[in-house]
Structure prediction request, 631 residues.
Amino acid sequence: MKQDALHIFLKRSLLFLLCYLGVVNGLWAKEKHGPLVKELGKIYSFCVEKEDSCFSKLDTIKARIMRSDDQEAKVFWEFIRAENNFHYYRYQTCIDSLLPVADVAKTNGYKFMSRNILRVIGDCYRNLDNYYLALTYYQEAFDWTDSKKSQGYFMLGNRVGMIYSYIAEHDKAIEWYTELIDNAIIAKDTFHLRNLNSSISRVYAEKGDYEKSLEWAKKSTAIAHQYSKADHIMKLTSDYVLGVAYRENGDCQEAINLIEPHLEDLKKYSPSNHFFNFQLMDCYRKMGNPDKAHLYYEQGMIAAQKEEAEGRTIKDSYLILCDYYEYKGNYKAALETHAKYLDYTLELQKGDKVRQTLMLRNEFEVRLKEVEINALEQTDKAKSLSIRQGNLIIGSLVGLLLLGGIITYLFFRQRKLKAQSKIDLLEQKLLRSQMNPHFIFNTVSVIQSLILSNENKRASKYLTQFSRLMHVILENSAEKFVSLKSEIDAIEDYVSLQLIRFNDSFDFNLQVAPSIDLENTLVPPMLIQPFVENAIEHGIRQVANGKIGVSIFEKNGFLYCEVDDNGIGLAATPSNKINSGYKTKSLSTKITKERLSHFSKELDMPIRLSISDKLYQGEQGTHVSILLPSK
Prediction:
C-alpha cells in the first residue's frame, strides 16, 4: 500500500528547509533575468511559506508586469499564481492555467520556468491519481535539469521514483533511486542523500521486503542526525520513517520510542494526523496493551473524521484499521473498512493487490458468517436446554435433531459456497487477465497524449476501438459461451489497439476455414486472446518485422486454433527474456489451462493445449495449438 500520508508529511516538513538551503535562489544563479523577474523571485520565496497572502502580493505587481515587454516575467507571474492554486488543492484549475504557459516557457528556452511548470503539472496529475501523465511531465521536467549535481535534478528524480512506486513498478523505482543515490554521493549532497535513502526504504516496504526497508531507513536516520544538530525537522522526519520501518518489521517498541515522544511535533508538519495515531495504535495492539491501543484509536478517528469532512481520504490507514477491528472482534466494521480499501484499490487497477484484497474480503465475510452462525447455535442451545428441563428425553431428541439439521445444512451450504467461490475466483482471474492494468493504463496514456497533441481524429478512433474492446470483454466475460464471430471481433479490436501502440511494428493475420459457421459456432469467451497477448508482449517486441498468425479450422470433427509467431521463443537467452518482460509462469496461460480442464469435464470431450518452441523445427518463434471446446 503506498504511503501518501508519509509522502505529504515529508513534502510539507521540508518546504521551509528548501527555502533556507537556497533552492529558489540557487536555481537562478546561472541565468540572467530582468528586475521584474528578480522581484517575482522574492514573492515566490514568500509564497512557499505564506500561501494565504500570495495572491495579494501578486496583485501589487500585476499592473507593472502586464505593461512591460518582459515575457519571462509574465510567464513567471502566471506560474506563481497557478502554483498557489495547487497549494489550495485546486489541481485542475492549476493544470488549465499552466498548460499554455508551459508552451511559452519551452518555446523561449526558459529553463527554470519550463522545469518548474512541468514539475507542478506533474504534481497536480499525481494528486489526481493520474500517475502515467504525472510521470510524463516529471520526465519532461527532468530533461530541463542543468546537471546531475543540481537541486532540481534530485528533487525531480525523487518524484519520478515515487511514481514508479505508485504504479507498482518497484524494481524500476529501486533502480532509479539507486542511480540518484550514487550521484548524490558523488555530489556530496547529504541533504538529498538522506531523502533518497528514505524514499528507497518506502519502496522496499511497498514491495514487501521489510528487512531491506529497515536497512535503508537506518541509513537515512544516520545521515539526518549527522547533517545538522540543529535541524530538528530533518531528524524528526527521519526518525518517523525509521519508526514505521520498525513497526513493519515487528519491532513495535522501537517504533513507539521513535514516534510517540514526538507525536505533537509530527502533527505540526503534516495534514494527515490520523496516520501517526494509527501507527501507535497498531504497535500497542501487537504488544498486548489494549488500553493504549484504544486511546490512539479514538484520537486517530477524531483526526480521520475531520480530514474526511475536508474532502481528504484516509486510504493509507484502511488496512491498519481493518486489523484493529478484527482484533476487537468487530468483523462487520473490519469488512466495511476493507471494502473501502478494496474500492480504492480497484479504482487504481493494481492487478495483484486486487486479487489479494478480494481474498481478504472473502475471509472477513466468512468470519462474519461464522460469528452469526455461532450466535444462532448459542440461541438454539439455550432453547434446547429450556425444553430439557420440562421433558429431558424429548428435549434431548429435539436438540440432537436440530444440531444434526444445522450440521447437515452447514455442510452442504459450505460445499456450495466453496464450489461457487472457485468459479467466481476463476471468472475474476479471467477478467483481470484480459483487462491487464498495464495495457489499460498504456492505452489511456496514448489517448491522452494524442489529445494533448491535438491529434483529435486519431484519439477519437483509438478511443472508439478501446471502448468497443472493453464492452466486448465485459459482456463476453458474463457468458459461458459466445459466438465465434464475437470472439474473433474482440481479438481483432485488441490487436488493432496494440498495432497503434507499437506503431504498426508487426504484421497480424487471422484466417478462419470457410466451412465454419461463425454465427452459430459457440465457444467459451477469451480463450484465444491471452496467447495473442503473450505473442505480442513476450514474443515479438524485440524482433524486427514481427509476425503473428492465427488460424481456426476443423479437424476430425473438432475445432482447432493455432497461434504462431516469429518472436524470441521459449528457448530465448535469460537476458532476452528479461528485456522482453518474459515470465516463466504466465498467469493467463495458467487460467486458460484451468478453464480448458473445466470444460473438458463439463462437455465430456478431449481438450488439448500445446505450446512449443519453433527452434527445434529450425525456425524462430512460438507455436500454440488449442483444441477449442465448442458446441
